[in-house]
Amino acid sequence: MRKFIKEFCKNNVPDAIVKQDKARNIYITKGEDKTYPCVVAHMDEVHDKNKNKEIVIHDNLIFGLDRKAMKLTGIGADDKNGIWVALNLLTTEKVLKCAFFVGEETGCIGSHQADMVFFSDVRFVVHFDVPDSPEAYFQEAGRGGRDGKRSFAVMLWNSTDIKRMKQIATVSFPSLEYIEDIYHKVHSAYEIPYDTGAGRQLKFNLEEFCRKYGLQRSSAYYALTYLERTDHLTLSEDVDISTKVQIRLERNELYDIEFPDPKMILLLETLMRKYTGLFAFPVPIDEDYIAGRIGVTVPMLRQLLYNLALEHVIKYIPSDHATVLFLHHDRLRPKNLNLDPERYQMLKDSSDTRMQKMLDYITEEDTCRSAYLLDYFGQKESADCGTCDVCRSSKKSSDTTLKEALVKFVNDEMSGSYTLEDVARRFGSQTSSDSDTYIRLLRRLIDEGTLPAPGL
Ligand SMILES: [Zn+2]
User: Fold this and answer.
1) Which of 61, 77, 252, 296 has the most CB atoms at less than 10 Å from its CB?
2) Per-residue pLDDT tens for 205-242?
3) Distance from the CA of 384 to the center of ligand 1, in angstroms?
4) Looking at the 3D structure of the chain, how many domains does it have?
5) Is residue 186 part of a domain?
6) Which domain holds residue 223?
7) Cross-sheet strand order for the sheet of 53-58
8) Neighbours of ion ligand 1 (CB under 5 A)
9) CA of 372 to the centre of ligand 1 (A)
10) CATH number for position 257
11) Are strands 233-241 and 320-327 parallel, antiparallel or unpaired?
């Protein structure tokens, strides 16, 4: 997904500035202005991960294609529509900022480590999907107005979002039996017997794992997440795996070979001096160090390694990004896992509550949005903000009632002949706090021609 986003920008918005931070979040700035609309989408690929997947655009739709099998495949991204909308906005808008976060489904990893300088002058924050809790929403909406100036948060949602949230709630807490089953399947997949395996690091592919055992991906993923929470293993996505090298020949055979490039022999000697075990198994190497020692750049070093592999001198496993499972202890026997059922129930309940609160928040029609959030975070009885959509629409409806009362009073009771004192006697003195409202409305009704002007 990261590659797709970058390529899309290069081909469609070449003038946009694309940056990546340490957490591998992507930031895109298009155009120059004092203030920018900002669009945020998530790059998580928690679903269907097909190795041969290529992301394709056709007919203004985005989907995954497996060219080898010539079939459509899942795109893997949970927020693909958000990504697609954001990318399209980049092509249509003159000025825009987009942020694409990693690891949002697994505890807002990307947004926690976000580069806040990028968001310092944001006036609008638009949500294309519903965050799973008010906490997440509050944090994300808080990207706007960090310079203290007025800013707006807009969320777009429909019934599909509600359905999706409820589905996520169901799959994100699979049963404890299922979780234990996943624990044993992971070990079986790597042929790890009981009472062994502590400290093993396994290159893990969720898609392959699920295919092998006929599992539903999201449930398996959440089972692994819970095993992580209960300290059985760690699942690290997007880990840098360093380049590994193994020498396939005997030491004395090396000196019989005539290498086309003298750097090759220098490289082999440097490797042998620095690392032991090279003849026995693939050893992780420090590319920067080795490149420096033999006086080449890292890309040149990789080319040399590749050429040596072609000559069957070494086995070369290039550096990679992969998901890695780290086993915390030896494989436990069935029924010996400590899955902490009480904690599980508590997590499930609190997740349900948070989701319900979020649903209430978006469907709320009577309570001020700001007051609702403050109440959720423990600040009771806060004043209405007067700015959010709920406040504005209630102001509108109270305006309508007051307008009707004014028209009725002037036309029916006073038969069109009235003074401002008459109005004040009926609707409160001109110095009262309400007077602003009715004078403003009266003025508008007179301007519209609905009511005659008052007499003196
Ligand atoms: Zn409000």
Assistant:
1) 77
2) 988 999 999 999 889 999 999 999 999 999 887 777 88
3) 5
4) 4
5) yes
6) 170-242+323-342
7) 53-58, 61-66, 71-73
8) 368, 370, 384-385, 388, 391
9) 9
10) 1.10.10
11) antiparallel
